[in-house]
Backbone:
């Protein structure tokens, strides 16, 4: 058989539309190869051939094997459908098969690892549509017959796609068909131009080998995590435009098929050649930003069976296996080194000390010839880190000096500034003129001014920033996935629980909704009487507060919203979502806040600058204790002052935390007033954390 | 052939120093937390009259303090808006001076140096004491995070073998009494392979 040429547009996103039909009741396979299943031909519409139907029918390439005897007959017989099959595999939630349970149950709902619900075994209940009815099937077939685009598809079927999991095998139902469809579309575009060898399309086994083995082993994918950073020091409110510009550059890039995910400062790119970076570079040069890149080259599929000990050292996976986080390679290198170290240590234990050096040297020599060493070397060569800067001159001759904000470009002389520009660099009150370069003046001109912030001349504010730690996210989701597989009694869950891009994509949708709800709640509470919330970014706010204790309102909102969207993060040692609240007088320079906002120490950091100097850094699971503590302190502080006693204890705790705790337990007076404090200390809240919250509450009663 | 003979390591102690950053925060003036090449080299060149001298420094211990003053407009004889300056206090650090094979240095064992800004207000008086002379052959080369600011063109002088992940900025280099230029430099936080003494302490360096 010759290759079937497809001249029309194949819409890869629509390939799994058949998964919205109940196969058990209708008999219709999701690739429609046996359409109309149990129905008579005249009961349902006829398929009108087009490229989309070809994609639906040919996106699988299955051969019978031990675990799965019944397979789909149709397979790719064109270049386009071969690429679609490859893209579909890549976008799948799991690549290593999780065995079906003996009960032959299917779970059609999306089991969100961070916010799980009960599994549903009936498709119609899961998606909220009569998935076995003639009307539903007609709707789907008529829709595809119309040759729709992807936008129409998501508009028409989006709500069902979001509820239906991509793979209903128990343990695989962790991502939605919505996310899977979007990712398949993106991977299709990325792989569109890869080289496909000439093949006899009559031979299904050959095509399957090409799609499932040869091409994935040959195709390399560059995964890049790019963080856009800036050398600028933000000190006027208009300089905060830097953050807005960065967010907008990334949003603009999100439309690119090679861009898989975007946060407010980071972008994850999957690419064959990495050329996309050139475009990003051009964008950031305009504002003197730079990009911090962590890059890893992955192959699409496991290349060979590696020694078990190597796989075991990296949690059972092939060390070269694809991940959405390139930094995982760094982690794998460390783990493999540790494996070697532990081997040496074990061996040397039984060797007399005088002979150890010689044996150790011999072991190092043999290590250099081992599979383990080759694997480490391969991984090291596949991973790199770099910073891409805009073009910088070696020397700058400028009588005026260098820009006070970016420190990278010559100052634009005051005489050359327009009236509007002069207003942007001159402080009305102090008459101090900021000496800025052309690019930093452009930044001040950008977008709408932050009106409220500009109006606030006195009083106190809190800066709030939420951050998503991508590296931690992959780690936490993996552990949650292991726990889920364990609950289903699936064998070797550590080896099977891999976090593919689809899970991250699914998570980011919820994260977006989480940010929207947090923002809504913040506005509802703080804007009730007058406007006090200045939106800076989707994940950043500045609020004018009347009293310090209002910080607790933010924490209460945060606890409520994070528990609604990500209740499972409360059970992890560390949450991937971080919250920083930094308090000061409105006139305090922003860049001092930025140091804290940009790099959270723990899950929830609260910083008090100025009169009530304080710092608290706690984990998410301790937030509950903080809220309880605030309730207890609120009651007690009305009647007495405890700050002096706490200060004394904190001084002692700097030498010995244990002694300080013992003093609390032994201090009858203290125990009498604060019996609950012992419980809170038991939850590992440090005395410093407690004092910060005492200050937050005490202001009210001073 | 390596023309660098050795590094003279001096301990520096000072009660107060103001090392102004180029960046400003309106009326707030932050302080640089390291002894960059430009500050220490120009102070030493001025003191010893040697224009070929190169040095860098690192601050190991310090506290901060804030000093408020109103600079005077000398023409109108009125005070301007008060400025709050960040001051480093109780500073202990290290200074490394490059000694070339063809130009041995004859520097005193101990000497005083005026460093940084607001010297007329009594800031910046520092005491330097020779601790040791490190032969360039004995300098350990490691991978780590740079703890000071060095012009890129001087990287060989301070045995920086490789720039892994840079953080760039510019340092001022005087050309004459009244003029100067800005030279591209590596800032603290850059990841490099180079002399151990330039790197942040308490880091596990693997190379």
Residues:
């Amino acid at each position: 058989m010759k290759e079937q040429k497809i001249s029309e547009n194949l819409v890869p996103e629509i390939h799994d539309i058949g998964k919205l039909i109940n196969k058990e009741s209708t008999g219709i396979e999701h690739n429609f190869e046996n359409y109309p299943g149990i129905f008579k031909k005249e009961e349902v519409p006829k398929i009108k051939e087009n490229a989309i139907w070809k994609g639906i029918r040919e996106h699988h390439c299955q051969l019978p094997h031990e675990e799965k005897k019944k397979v789909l007959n149709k397979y790719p017989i064109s270049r386009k459908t071969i690429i679609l099959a490859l893209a579909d595999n890549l976008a799948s939630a799991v690549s290593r098969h999780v065995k079906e349970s003996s009960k032959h149950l299917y779970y059609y709902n999306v089991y969100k690892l961070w916010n799980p619900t009960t599994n549903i075994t009936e498709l119609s209940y899961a998606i909220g549509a009569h998935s076995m009815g003639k009307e539903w099937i007609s709707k789907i077939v008529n829709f595809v017959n119309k040759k729709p685009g992807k936008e129409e598809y998501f508009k028409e079927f989006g709500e069902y796609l979001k509820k239906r999991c991509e793979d209903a095998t128990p343990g695989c139902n962790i991502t939605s068909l919505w996310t899977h469809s979007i990712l398949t579309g993106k991977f299709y575009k990325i792989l569109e131009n890869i080289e496909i060898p000439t093949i006899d399309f009559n031979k299904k086994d050959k095509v399957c080998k090409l799609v499932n083995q040869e091409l994935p082993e040959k195709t390399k994918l560059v995964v890049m995590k790019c963080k856009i950073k800036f050398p600028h020091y933000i000190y006027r409110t208009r300089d905060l435009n830097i953050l807005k510009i960065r967010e907008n550059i990334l949003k603009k890039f999100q439309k690119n098929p090679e861009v898989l995910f975007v946060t407010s400062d980071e972008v994850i790119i999957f690419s064959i050649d990495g050329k996309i970076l050139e475009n990003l570079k051009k964008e950031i040069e305009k504002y003197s930003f730079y990009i911090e890149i962590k890059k890893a080259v992955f192959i699409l599929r496991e290349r060979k069976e590696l020694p078990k000990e190597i796989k075991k050292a990296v949690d059972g996976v092939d060390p070269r296996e694809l991940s959405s986080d390139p930094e995982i390679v760094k982690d794998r290198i460390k783990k493999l080194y540790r494996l070697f170290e532990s081997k040496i240590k074990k061996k040397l234990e039984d060797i007399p000390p005088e002979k150890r050096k010689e044996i150790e040297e011999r072991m190092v020599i043999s290590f250099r010839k081992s599979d383990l060493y080759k694997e480490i070397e391969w991984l090291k060569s596949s991973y790199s880190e770099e910073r891409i800067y805009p073009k910088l001159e070696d020397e700058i001759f400028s009588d005026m000096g260098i820009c006070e904000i970016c420190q990278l470009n010559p100052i634009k002389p005051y005489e050359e500034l327009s009236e509007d520009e002069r207003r942007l660099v001159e402080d009305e009150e102090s008459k101090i003129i900021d000496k800025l370069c052309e690019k930093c003046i452009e930044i001040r001109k950008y977008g709408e001014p932050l009106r409220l912030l500009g109006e606030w001349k006195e009083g106190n504010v809190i800066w709030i920033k939420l951050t998503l730690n991508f590296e931690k996210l992959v780690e936490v989701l993996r552990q949650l996935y292991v726990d889920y597989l364990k609950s289903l009694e699936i064998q070797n869950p550590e080896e099977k629980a891999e976090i593919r891009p689809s899970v991250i994509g699914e998570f980011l949708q919820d994260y977006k909704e989480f940010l929207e709800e947090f923002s809504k709640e913040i506005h509802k509470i703080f804007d009730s009487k007058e406007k006090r919330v200045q939106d800076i970014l989707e994940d950043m706010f500045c609020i004018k507060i009347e009293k310090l204790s209002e910080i607790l309102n933010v924490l209460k909102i945060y606890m409520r919203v994070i528990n609604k969207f990500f209740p499972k993060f409360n059970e992890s040692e560390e949450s991937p979502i971080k919250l920083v609240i930094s308090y000061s007088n409105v006139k305090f320079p922003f860049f001092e806040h930025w140091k804290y906002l940009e790099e959270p120490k723990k899950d929830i950091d609260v910083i008090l600058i100025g009169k009530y100097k304080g710092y608290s850094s706690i984990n998410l699971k301790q937030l509950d204790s903080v809220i309880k503590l605030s309730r207890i302190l609120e009651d007690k502080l009305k009647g007495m002052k405890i700050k002096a006693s706490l200060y004394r204890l904190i001084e002692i705790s700097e030498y010995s935390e244990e002694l300080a705790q013992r003093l609390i337990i032994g201090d009858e007076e203290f125990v009498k007033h604060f019996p609950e404090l012992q419980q809170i200390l038991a939850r590992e809240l440090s005395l410093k954390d407690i004092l910060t919250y005492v200050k937050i509450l005490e202001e009210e009663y001073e | 052939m390596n023309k660098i003979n050795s590094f003279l390591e001096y301990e520096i102690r000072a009660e107060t120093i103001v090392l102004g950053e180029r960046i400003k925060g309106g009326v707030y003036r932050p302080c640089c937390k390291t002894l960059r090449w430009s500050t220490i080299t120009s102070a030493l060149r001025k003191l010893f009259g040697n224009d070929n001298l190169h040095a860098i420094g690192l601050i190991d211990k310090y506290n901060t303090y804030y000093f408020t003053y109103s600079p005077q407009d000398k023409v109108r004889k009125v005070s301007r808006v008060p400025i709050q300056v960040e001051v480093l206090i109780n500073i202990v650090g290290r200074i490394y001076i490059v000694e070339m094979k063809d130009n041995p240095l004859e520097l005193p064992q101990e000497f005083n140096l005026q460093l940084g800004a607001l010297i007329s207000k009594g800031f910046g008086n520092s005491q330097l004491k020779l601790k040791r002379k490190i032969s360039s052959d004995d300098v350990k080369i490691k991978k780590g995070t740079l703890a000071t600011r060095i012009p890129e063109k001087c990287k060989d002088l301070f045995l920086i073998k490789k720039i892994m992940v840079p953080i760039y900025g510019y340092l001022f280099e005087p050309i004459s009494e009244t003029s100067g230029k800005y030279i591209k430099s590596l800032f603290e936080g850059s990841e490099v392979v180079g002399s151990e003494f330039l790197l942040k302490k308490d880091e596990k360096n693997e190379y």
Notes: Chain A touches chain B through 33 residues (CB under 8 Å). Residues 501-526 of chain A form the longest helix (26 residues). The CA atoms of residues 434 and 515 of chain A lie 35 Å apart.
